[in-house]
Each structure stands twice: as C-alpha cells, then as structure tokens.
C-alpha cells in the first residue's frame, strides 16, 4: 500500500476480509448494530484517508483491531458524557391561553393598584412586591405601624372589590 490509487484494491480486499470480524468486535463493545457498523466504517475511512497505507502490510489486522477498539471506546465515552449531562432547569411554560390570562390578570392588578390612593398603593407595593414587614414599611414611609396596617387592609379590600 503505497498510494491511495494503488491502495484502493487492497483496501477493498481488506474490507471484505476483515469487516465481519471487526463488526463482531465493535458490536461486543458498543451493543448496538448500527453504531458498530459506524465504528467499522470510520476505521476503514480513516485507513483510506491515510493514503500512504501501512508500512508493513502484515500489521493490517492488528492496526484494524486497535483502531476499532479505540473508535468504540470513543463512542462509549461520548455516550457516558451524554448520559451524565443534566440540562439546566427550565420552568415549565404554560399554554398560550394561560399565559394570556396571567398577563391579563397582572394588568388588572396593576390597574387596580394605580387606582388606589398613594399611601395605600405604596403600602401594598412595599408589602407584596418589596416583601417588607409592617415595621420596615413604617420605617420606610415614615408612618406608624397602625397606619400601615389600616392602609394595607383598606387597599386590599379596594383591590379585591375592583378585581371581582
């Protein structure tokens, strides 16, 4: 095997002669006939790409076995990596209808909040969107805790009436 053109008949003969044994070897390693066939095809394609062939034609069977084993190991490594991969968590998206309803509900809540007097709107916003306690709201707005409680109570009652 000295040139690609000269190697073609020898490669065809090697394929005919060694393919069944290499296929059995690959199948024993990868446990999938289609993948085993791909492994053997890749080995012969690699041999063909070499073009210059092997220096020692008697080394061909050993070369083919080793190449098949190495290619099968690569396939198994890739499989192991694919199976170990855990995709990042993506929250389930709702249907288009539920998303539209949710967006509509949000717009309704926003409109109801904007219709409230400023103090009630501020208290509800700080409580439910800012996640502040009554004491933190009182400190932030400069009003008493009692005023925070009554503003929140009146604001929630008004919002629930507007949304009903």
Quick overview:
The chain is mostly helical and 164 residues long. It has seven helices and no strands. It has two domains: 4-84; 113-163, Winged helix-like DNA-binding domain superfamily/Winged helix DNA-binding domain (Arc Repressor Mutant, subunit A), CATH 1.10.10.
Folded structure, characterized:
By secondary structure, the protein is mainly alpha-helical. It folds into two domains: 4-84; 113-163, Winged helix-like DNA-binding domain superfamily/Winged helix DNA-binding domain (Arc Repressor Mutant, subunit A). The protein has helices spanning 4-30, 33-50, 60-84, 96-115, 118-129, 134-141, 145-163. The radius of gyration is 36 Å and the shape is rod-shaped. It starts with a helix and ends with a helix. This is RNA polymerase sigma-70 factor (Sigma-E family).
Q: Which helices and strands occur, and which strands form pairs?
A:
Blueprint: H1 4-30, H2 33-50, H3 60-84, H4 96-115, H5 118-129, H6 134-141, H7 145-163
Helix pairs in contact: 1-2, 1-3, 2-3, 4-7, 5-7, 6-7
Based on secondary structure, the structural category is mainly alpha
What's the rounded overall pLDDT mean?
87
Instruction: Tell me the number of strands.
Output: 0
**Separation of termini?**
87 Å
Radius of gyration over all CA atoms, rounded? 36 Å
Beta-strand proportion: under 5%
Largest beta sheet, briefly?
none
Taken together, the total number of domains comes to 2
Q: Tell me, what's the shape?
A: rod-shaped
SSE topology string? HHHHHHH
What's the number of helices?
7
Which blocks of ≥5 consecutive residues have pLDDT under 50?
A: 1-6
| Percent helix range | over 70%
Family: Belongs to the sigma-70 factor family. ECF subfamily.
GO biological process, one term: DNA-templated transcription initiation
Keywords: DNA-binding, Sigma factor, Transcription, Transcription regulation
InterPro entries: RNA_pol_sigma-70-like, RNA_pol_sigma-70_dom, RNA_pol_sigma-E_actinobac, RNA_pol_sigma70_r2, RNA_pol_sigma70_r4_t2, RNA_pol_sigma_r2, RNA_pol_sigma_r3/r4-like, WH-like_DNA-bd_sf
